[in-house]
Amino acid sequence: MFSILKPLPTDPILGLMAAYRQDTNPNKIDLGVGVYKDELGNTPVLKAVKKAEAFRLENETSKSYIGLAGDLGFCSKIEQQLLGEHRALLANRVRTAQAPGGTGALRVAAEFIVRCNPNATVWVTTPTWANHISLFEAAGLTVKEYPYYDYENKGLLFDEMVETLKQVPKGDIVLLHACCHNPSGMDLNLEQWEIVADIAADVGFTPLVDIAYQGFGTGLDDDAAGLRLLADKVDELIICSSCSKNFGLYRERIGACSIISDTSAVADIANSVLLSVVRSIYSMPPAHGAAIVDTILGSNELTALWHEELAEMRDRINGLRSLIVDALNTETDQDFSFIKHQHGMFSFLGINKEQIERLQKEFGIYIVGSSRVNVAGISKANIDYFSKAVAEVLK
Ligand code: PMP
């Protein structure tokens, strides 16, 4: 049976990681992989996480199953982090299932959508995180794209986006990135969120908000402001969140799929379907990541420490954005100021394939083929080398 299989190409980012590891250039820089890095190029365990883990080691009393929805303390704290004091929460219209990472949450959402409407199309931004397309298609859903990033002017194609969204059939799903758009870093402002929310309410599509970088853009509440605005205007909403980046818990695989329904009674029904989806995929989620987040968010002291560490990561990223603009604008004759107006870890440099290849071969600077760079891979130690190398390939 297996002999009919054809080999598939490896994921380009994983291939890039392998090539980077083998490169012996002492000045090499990895700007490919989407993980936060500190000034030394490390992705350390947060202090708040270490403390929560120590507490858990002492206090965990059982390894028995935690139930289909996962850790209920985690679920309710995440709902609050996402929605604040939103009336959907106060009216008991929100249900959450803990999931294995943001990816697991998206796959649960995809299967949930299939149960609601197997003929639904999921509309995603052009471009989007590549795995969005694969995972919705893997669940049997059709994926279509709507205009989003303006490669020419390094901004948003907002008018084109609006025109397409107005044509989306009722019952379809529109995926929106809450903040720190991956791969472009280009986010909607609040006025634009409001317009999108009005269209969703008018047209009757269901928004699915992917929030994988809450706290990495401008702040925990600011980064969820668009999502909350959407929840003001539509009755039904799906939210897929991830604690990989903001808690630095990547390999613990912790995220959540939250469903907002019109009424509490519908929410109960939706929840029963959500849990049945979970049961048929992985039965129950892993406990550790959720316990860490629950412990941190359940303690004023650990929450304060985590807020500090999150702000440190965010400030470093935003500081690097300014540093990169200054360095590239000095070394090259192009204007890279757009990088300052974007958010999160990613931006497109806007250079071509040949220039990307030269950066890798001649300078050991690793960037994915779309020219998306992970801003956090830059440091004060390598910014000069990086900007001179970019200037060289742009000549
Ligand atoms: N959504 C987006 C937009 C992402 O960039 C990522 C991670 N790269 C995820 C979801 C999933 O994150 P994870 O599964 O690692 O929690």
UniProtKB/TrEMBL annotation:
Query: What are the record keywords, sorted?
Result: Aminotransferase, Pyridoxal phosphate, Transferase
Which Enzyme Commission numbers does its entry carry? 2.6.1.-
Q: Which GO terms describe its molecular function?
A: identical protein binding; L-aspartate:2-oxoglutarate aminotransferase activity; L-tyrosine-2-oxoglutarate transaminase activity; pyridoxal phosphate binding
One Pfam family of this protein, by short name? Aminotran_1_2
Which PANTHER family is this protein grouped with? ASPARTATE AMINOTRANSFERASE, ASPARTATE AMINOTRANSFERASE, MITOCHONDRIAL
Quaternary structure annotation from Swiss-Prot or TrEMBL: Homodimer.
Protein name as annotated: Aminotransferase
Question: What is the scientific name of the source organism?
Answer: Pseudoalteromonas ulvae
